[in-house]
Amino acid sequence: MTGHGPLPVRPDPASVATDAGTGGMVGFTGRYEKRLSDLAGVFLDEAARIRAVGDGDPVIYTVTEHRQEESELFFGTTRLSPGQVGGEYFMTRGHFHARPDRGEVYTTLSGTGILILETRGGRTAELAMRPGATAAIPPGWAHRTVNTGATDLVFSWVCSVDAGHDYGSIAEHGMRRLVLARDGRPVVANNPRFG
Ligand code: PAN
Ligand code: ZN
């Protein structure tokens, strides 16, 4: 006897194959899709969104995750389609983590886009997403991804299992910056409806 208590349960090491072009993961443990009909209020031009829902309601993004029992981390991929609604590129809902002390890491696997970030105190940042770019999202920064390219934007993410999601703040106020398509190019602009 050493006098120590029982060892905590720990997961076994694991390697998970991920397809950089589709975000598909072998042995994923969860998956969900968001269609344009799920994204009410995300785009400035709500009438354009509703029209596009009527024209077929495309899948905008798919999130695939891998969670191991007893691990403090989990990871996954997001595949975001190319396209626009009312002159804004397709994007994710965006969220703060429920825990203000939990960040995240995003690595772009394919495609191009912009990661939009902001704090509750009003700091903002935009980071380019291109294959091989890894973004450190610090605790306290809301994050949303925007696909500014002509192909799927696929990125992997790694996060604490207890980070949690706060969607309410952004659903209510929007984000301070948005990405508009002007002459076929992405332009970061102030959100006229913020707040
Ligand atoms: C990501 C996001 C994913 C979808 O896994 O959840 O890209 O974006 P929304 O959650 O904003 O719809 C992540 O940041 N997890 O914490
Ligand atoms: Zn997150």
Tell me what you see in this structure:
The chain is mainly beta and 195 residues long. The chain has two helices and 15 strands. Strands 1-2-3-12-7-10 form a six-stranded antiparallel sheet, with no helix packed on it. The chain has a three-stranded antiparallel sheet with strand order 9-8-11, with no helix packed on it. The chain has a two-stranded antiparallel ribbon with strand order 4-5. It starts with 29 loop residues before the first strand and ends in a 5-residue tail after the last strand. The model has no long low-confidence stretch (mean pLDDT 96). 5-phospho-D-arabinohydroxamic acid binds next to strand 3, strand 11 and strand 12.
Beta-strand content bin: 35-45%
Strand order of the largest sheet: 1-2-3-12-7-10
Radius of gyration: 18 Å
- Which structural class do the helices and strands define? mainly beta
List segments where confidence is low: pLDDT < 50 over at least 5 consecutive residues.
Answer: none
Using DSSP, what is the number of strands?
15
Bound molecules: 5-phospho-D-arabinohydroxamic acid, zinc ion
* Secondary-structure element string: EHEEEEEEEEEEEEHEE
Q: Can you tell me the overall shape?
A: globular
Number of helices: 2
N-to-C CA distance? 61 Å
Helix content: under 10%
Mean of residue pLDDT?
A: 96
For the biggest sheet, the summary is: 6 strands, antiparallel
